[in-house]
Amino acid sequence: MPNDLTPPSDAFAKSAHIDAETYEKMYAASVADPEAFWAEHGQRVDWIKPFTVVRSTSFAPGNIDIKWFEDGTLNVAANCIDRHLATRADQTAIIWEPDDPNDAAKHITYAELHRETCKMANILEDMGVRKGDRVVIYLPMIPEAAYAMLACARIGAIHSIVFAGFSPDALGARINGCDAKVLITADYAPRGGRQTPLKSNADAALLNVLHDCKVLVVRRTGGQITWMEGRDHDYAELRLEADDHTPAAEMAAEDPLFILYTSGSTGQPKGVVHTTGGYLVYASMTHAYTFDYHDGDIFWCTADVGWVTGHSYIVYGPLANGATTLMFEGVPTYPDAGRFWAVCEKHKVNQFYTAPTAIRALMGQGDEFVTKYDLSDLKLLGSVGEPINPEAWNWYNTVVGGGRCPIVDTWWQTETGGHLITPLPGAIATKPGSATKPFFGVQPVVLDAHSGTEITSTEAEGVLCLKDSWPGQMRTVWGDHERFEKTYFSDYKGYYFSGDGCRRDADGYYWITGRVDDVINVSGHRMGTAEVESALVAHAKVAEAAVVGYPHQIKGQGIYAYVTLMNGVEPSDDLRKELESWVRTEIGPIAKPDLIQWAPGLPKTRSGKIMRRILRKIAENDYGALGDTSTLADPSVVDNLIENRANKG
Ligand code: ATP
Ligand code: MG
């Protein structure tokens, strides 16, 4: 893997919140005396009743118990809106960019955000929602999604957002899973020029919901929908009469703020529970420092609010910091592959945060789509969701960032609430493909996968765990604390187990090597998937690659590579041989793929992550047991791969 260090420019480092020296000092303090550190940084949010206990956290078997700031009280919506009104009432809180570039964007001020959130909160109260009740949100990326989240927070209801691309089955399961009192949805969700019929999906989902669940319907397109009197409520109509001064409820720090299901890359999604105080402190602090956000900057995270990235870095983190956050309804390739950069130019975006899947897709479309736009306002670029292949990192850095913008490769999970391992851009020199160093208070450890013992040498390779709690940590799995303990605390006792593998290099930098379940063991050599995939992607004719192990008579496991070629490149036996020897020279003979299958598309979650567990089943010839595929973006990809499996028979 490339090891070249890219330090921040002098100009960037000078104006950054955190420089190298400050990082070292603050990090050391954060692990030497976490109580004192978080007592201080807990003050970045406004408390109604200040906390006196910083934390009580236990990773002990049989007693997994995580509490932060537990005797403090606060309200998240008041922190994200009301406390800014004195100084920022007329500042834009949310810039909304619609799916169709010919439609008008919206600029929503903090005063407007306050009004709309209060109205939505009042509507929910009138529909019978009380503190602690659950509300499922199934909306397009429209401002009402943010109003709905903040309205729940305002009255102390717990929201559970379901991505608008999910099927009625997935939606129904999530409504039942938390006994939701209200479902907030829209008529249709425009995306990439097409429309998903959200209301009719919701109607279908509710056929399988036996408890009483009311529906609040936002009219996004005005298209035709069916209506069930008594159950369905019209948002536009109720909004006219709703009170625009709904009081913010006093919540305990450990009251749940939201439930959110993980992406389902590795199995059945888990209902992750985040609470009020610690989550907000952590989301806002990581937003400010990782992105080096300064007052007046325009911040754009391209995720959907249906993912944790959208919770922490479109809504809660930025708004708690009084930022201007951009919310985009569309997709990167509509009307063409230049949309991201058109939006960056149009709204003068300063920090841009997206996923490797988008970067890889856009990289294959040609640089003209980027270079025709003025991206001079960009100061920083971010990546999240999967390991970013060095090839994609370099393209992002030079073509998008003009070599001027630090890249923050942020490693974290739905479970962690916010970034755990990431460069702080003014402090830490980056290496393409490495998430670099831990955030304040985060203590990563590398364990030997078999013995479970901590590898204390600087250079290490193994399983990535966390030694101690941080305020943004999830508290439980909704309704199933046992599953929480079993999933995260039972394989390696006394640690939080991330499920990811990693390597720590001689400089103490962390490299995520992929999921532990995906590690391939070739003739006794353990290999992460990321390294082989990155080597393949580095070849000029390869757009994307996914690598899994399959049973091999001699080696134990062989390497099976699914390869998507660049637009216009034809597969051939010569190219297959070329790729084999390419990987052999890039990494070594041990990493040479045994089988290569040409894959027009790869199975991905709706959030764009490659689902290797399905690819492994196909490679193993075990189609009967594909597991939970409900979060798959395009199931037809799987049929195609099964049909064209590399070593049939
Ligand atoms: P499930 O837990 O249901 O299998 P998931 O793990 O994909 O789904 P998320 O919480 O959305 O659900 O994703 C977190 C995972 O994404 C991490 O554990 C890691 O594998 C991967 N990931 C996120 N950011 C990075 C990054 N910067 N580098 C490498 N991997 C990353
Ligand atoms: Mg996971």
Automatic annotation (TrEMBL):
Residue positions binding ATP: 385-387, 409-414, 500, 515, 526
Modified residues (N6-acetyllysine): 609
UniProt-annotated binding residues for CoA: 191-194, 309, 523, 584
Keyword presence, ATP-binding: yes
Enzyme class: ligase
Catalysed conversion reaction: acetate + ATP + CoA = acetyl-CoA + AMP + diphosphate
PANTHER family named in the record: ACETYL-COENZYME A SYNTHETASE (PTHR24095), ACETYL-COENZYME A SYNTHETASE 1 (PTHR24095:SF14)
Protein name, UniProt field: Acetyl-coenzyme A synthetase
Record-linked Pfam families: ACAS_N (PF16177), AMP-binding (PF00501), AMP-binding_C (PF13193)
Changes after translation: Acetylated. Deacetylation by the SIR2-homolog deacetylase activates the enzyme.
Superkingdom per UniProt: Bacteria
Annotated gene: acsA
Domain (Acetyl-coenzyme A synthetase N-terminal) ranges: 23-80
Entry's family note: Belongs to the ATP-dependent AMP-binding enzyme family.
Entries under HAMAP family matching the protein: Ac_CoA_synth (MF_01123)
EC nos: 6.2.1.1
